[in-house]
Amino acid sequence: MSSLPVNRQTALPGFQETDNTAENPGVRAPLVLNMDRFGQVTRQVCQVAESKKPPFAWYVAFTVSLGLVGLLGFCVNYLIFTGVGVWGLNNPVMWAFDITNFVFWVGIGHAGTLISAILFLFRQKWRTGINRFAEAMTIFAVICAGLFPGIHVGRVWLAYWLFPIPNQMDMWPQFRSPLLWDVFAVSTYFTVSFVFWFVGMVPDLATLRDRAKGRIQQFAYGLFALGWRGSNRHWHRYEVAYLLLAALSTPLVLSVHSVVSFDFAVSQVPGWHTTIFPPYFVAGAIFSGFAMVVTLAVPARQLFGLKDLITLRHLDNMNKIILVTGCMVGYAYSMEFFIAWYSGAMYERFAFVNRAFGQYWWAYWIMVSCNVITPQLFWFKSIRTSIPIMFALCLVVNIGMWFERFVIIVTSLANDFLPTSWDFFTPTWVDMGTMMGAFGLFGTLFLLFCRYLPMIAMAEVKATMPQANPHWSGYEAHDDHGHAGGSAKPSFASPDALRSPGSGPDGGPPAL
Amino acid sequence: MTTLSPINPPVTQGNQIPRKRLYGILAEFHDPAALMAAADKVRMAGFRWWDCHTPFPVHGLDKAMGIKRTILPVLVFGAGLTGTTIGFCLQAFTNAASFSIWALVWVTGYPFLISGKPLISMPAFIPVMFELTILLSALSAVGIMFLFNGLPRWNHPLLSNKRFLRVTDDRFFIVIESRDPRFFASRTEQFLKDLGAKAVEMVEA
């Protein structure tokens, strides 16, 4: 079978897909379709930021998102001015939508770091098409996540107590608490993800700067491009720094959701106090994050005409990861049940039976059907490569993963050790409004990013094209010049010739 | 295209503004293969103050240019160790010490006794130590990288050059700076032309 891309016609105009998912070990599948020049990649990515007006659908989505941000602002202010009693919390359910949303959003972020860091270390070149906006998604998701612990503390104006800041009371945070580890883990995660995203974007901001026509664009892009001029001496250190960031982000991302899971696992609440939580949370985070990447990628590539860069192969690969992590999550669900029975701990056993058949049985079965059963459809290639079906399935996974956090948090708290104190949590309109508002905040930030920043890592995509290989000389066939060194292979003759510059009185730029 | 030549400056008349200094000579290539071959020859010719400029990192160009591997990872390792140390000292002081130190203001430690556990409970301190290690390493990796690269630098002779605008798009350049001991405008220009450059151009300082 050939691995050459095949054009697949569908009924609707504008929805044609080029199928580059065929596997042929002899031929590297193309990651950039219908383009053989670097300039074409630049134009296709930059036209989004350079166009006078975004597509109409952008305005619709932006209006809706901005409206939800207004709702968020209202709900948060209402909460602060009134008190956490406006939420449906009770004793014993003192954590509900707030922490569910926190864990959900932190989890969403994990796919971005996985794509940018772990797939980079594994030399998965297809990551280049999706890493930039997945990283952006990470940052915006962590912003949404950070909001919830911030407002759920009740007295928001004392949130600085979370940090070890010298104060007149000589008071320090208690570092033996997982909640404080969380403060450090999430703030480090945000900072490092932001730096990673920004550093990756500098060369592309330089592209936008060099193409900008207006003064404002030239100034704004120029300011953040930091004067990048593609020097190879710079690229050398840049690549080392990028590799280091990837190597540092990999354990970081695994630690973040592990620490989030410690918030539960270190406590003694039945249903929370389990050692499986760290790996289970990390797998779930990647699962939900990839579902969100697909949910965002499908409309974005359609709307902004990026189908040649975010190809069917990229989506197919992501769906495979969703399938794998979905199976891991399913394994974790069943292992929790097994251990609840095998441990012989009666409270633990009750917690799990109650989870599936108690007062929140519907939440549990929504979770299982969305997270374990539905993703199994991705075993079929026709489903993995069908745009509408994958979009629908990923929405289902997003819902399921939200419910997973709800199930873990609320069912464990609502029915704890003492039956007399059992209660039932019902969300209020403020709970719902805050949750919807967080989606609005996420959407607003993401839409602004799509509109004004390079949505695809142009420099990285170009480097994965076959034309970027110095041994590729395809243009020579139809270029009419006859230069001396153009097609000659570089000679790395003597080791003496390879001696590094930077020695001697005027021996060139310092080699640092 | 600006044609500058410091060898034969035009006769200046009266108070005419003299020509600007020469930053270097720019040679343009259209594909990585041509650039690699040319870079190899420039290095062989013994130039030191020169550079390649590319829209993306070209694999193998470091070797062709003879760039020594950066010491960045060593410094980042040091920064990481600093982060670990800060993480430990911060927690040990604030949660276990009963004395005061001066850290911009006088601060006093507070020995937290939690269910009879040791004051310095290492296992509980590890997550924060780990996070601070990562934080300092990552920030220093980026900070030192930009510092060594001399960035941010918003004005540079090359950034004022029209032809050079496409370096972030699809063009590949070799720039030999005039401060190189082997630089000799007309001869270097010819040398770059002989390397098969699509265009060779003087760059004003």
Q: Class by helix and strand content of chain B?
A: alpha+beta
Please give the CATH architecture of chain A: Up-down Bundle
CATH fold label of chain A: Formate dehydrogenase/DMSO reductase fold
CATH H-level homologous superfamily name of chain A? Formate dehydrogenase/DMSO reductase domain
Q: Name the biggest interface.
A: A-B, 97 and 100 residues
Number of domains of chain A: 1
The mean pLDDT of chain B is 85
Q: Give the SSE order of chain B as H and E letters.
A: EHEHHEEHEHE
Low-confidence stretches of chain A: 476-505
What is the rounded Rg of chain B?
27 Å
Number of strands of chain B: 6
What portion of residues of chain B belong to β-strands?
Answer: 15-25%
Shape of chain A: globular
- List how many beta strands of chain A DSSP finds: 2
The number of helical elements of chain B comes to: 5
Radius of gyration of chain A: 26 Å
3D architecture notes:
The complex is a heterodimer of chains A (512) and B (205). Helices cover 61% and strands 1% of the residues of chain A. Chain A is an all-alpha fold. Chain A has one domain: Up-down Bundle (Formate dehydrogenase/DMSO reductase fold), CATH 1.20.1630. A two-stranded antiparallel sheet of chain A has the order 1-2. In chain A, α3 packs across α13 and α8 (277-303) runs antiparallel to α9 (312-342). With 205 residues, chain B is of the alpha+beta class. Chain B has helices at residues 32-44, 61-65, 72-96, 122-148, 185-194; strands at 22-29, 50-53, 100-103, 105-108, 172-177, 199-204. In chain B, the strands form two sheets. In chain B, strands 2-5-1-6 form a four-stranded antiparallel sheet, covered by helices on one side. In chain B, α3 (72-96) packs antiparallel against α4. The two termini of chain B are 15 Å apart. Chains A and B meet through α1, α5, α7 and α15 of A and α1, β2, α2, α3 and β4 of B.
